[in-house]
Amino acid sequence: MEKFTWDDAEDIGIALAENHSGVDPLQVRFTDLHQWVIDLEEFGGDPMKSTEGKLERIQMAWLEEFREEQGE
Q1: Most-buried pick from 12, 14, 15, 41 (CB within 10 A)?
Q2: Chain CA centroid to CA 24, Å
Q3: Does residue 20 contact residue 66 with C-beta atoms inside 8 Å?
């Protein structure tokens, strides 16, 4: 299986939703989000190559999963 990079926002969002079920992504600080992404077993990107925009895209993808989980 190919590892995720910072450009795989949707895949990362799904993985975060699975690993942090019930956590509202809008309440997670970007510093924590960054750490949670690089801690994913499926993540193989360079930790230094994240940007605020990439973290925002990941957060929004995760939010979509979170809302589906909440039945919204």
Answers
A1: 12
A2: 12
A3: no
Output the CA angle 65-51-6, nearest 5 degrees: 55
Backbone angles phi, psi at 5, to 5 degrees: -120, 180
34 closest CA partner among 18, 17, 19, 12: 12
Using a cut of 0.90, tell me whether the model's pTM lies above it. yes
Kindly report, residue by residue over 49-69, the tens digit of the pLDDT.
Answer: 999 999 999 999 999 999 998
CB of 47 within 8 A of CB of 13?
Answer: no
Question: Which architecture does CATH list for 9-70?
Answer: Orthogonal Bundle (1.10)
